[in-house]
């Protein structure tokens, strides 16, 4: 059996992006380790969710532990950098934020975990961090370097299938309109995705993991992050079939293999 380290930027990223893969890996007997660069201090909490004096980073840490329990993670580790916030925000200049971290120094921290765990597999994000968030881009940079230091050769970029997202947008236009999205906003969203800031085109992806068998637990892992995702959130309001279509497949690019005309591989452990 193998050990897989899933490296993420903030609490809830793991639940949304790779929790199904993690659950299936655990059920197959592999060791699953979740590493987070930050505690998500710059997130926007659901109104009224925090107790008086409660810090968002503390809440999100606790939520991650609950998510990890649902997923079945053997260990949850925080690198303890501060959340950098969204791109071009003043928080990007915080010397203690992950975006400002020295890549070599941060990579050595992660490499220490990879070595201690005798990791066989590492997941990071694509080079644009999926959608351009500074901390996600830094996960890519730090993760790739850490794998080099620790000698982990099986590195997968967790990402979104841009081709499928555009198809889903077209199919769910009425649903977004019902949520109040204007035609202009829809056009902006499509333009953002088409111009390369969201995921990767399907032709560049190598692996798709079907997680529909654990989709209910994936939803529970997402809901564990109640400071960010509550019952009224767009994700949680999706009908079951729409949620399954949106989140029932998790996509990756193998940095050491180009798919070409071959079929998608369906596991990170072949």
Word description of this protein:
- This protein is α/β, with parallel strands linked by helices.
- The chain folds into two domains: about 5-160 and about 200-255, LmbE-like (Rossmann fold, 3-Layer(aba) Sandwich); about 160-200, no CATH class.
- The chain contains eleven helices and seven strands.
- It has helices spanning about 15, 20-25, 55-70, 105-115, 135-150, 160-170, 175-180, 185-195, 215-225, 235, 240-245, and strands spanning about 5-10, 30-40, 75-80, 120-125, 155-160, 205-210, 250-255.
- The protein has a seven-stranded mixed sheet with strand order 3-2-1-4-5-7-6, sandwiched between helices.
- Strand 4 (about 120-125), helix 5 (about 135-150) and strand 5 form a beta-alpha-beta unit.
- Helix 4 (about 105-115) crosses helix 5 (about 135-150).
- The longest helix has 17 residues, at about 135-150.
- The radius of gyration is 18 Å and the shape is globular.
Number of strands: 7
CATH architecture heading of the largest domain: 3-Layer(aba) Sandwich
Kindly name the structural category: alpha/beta
- Major beta-sheet overview: 7 strands, mixed
CATH superfamily of the largest domain: LmbE-like
Distance between the termini: 11 Å
Mean of all residue-level pLDDT scores: 92
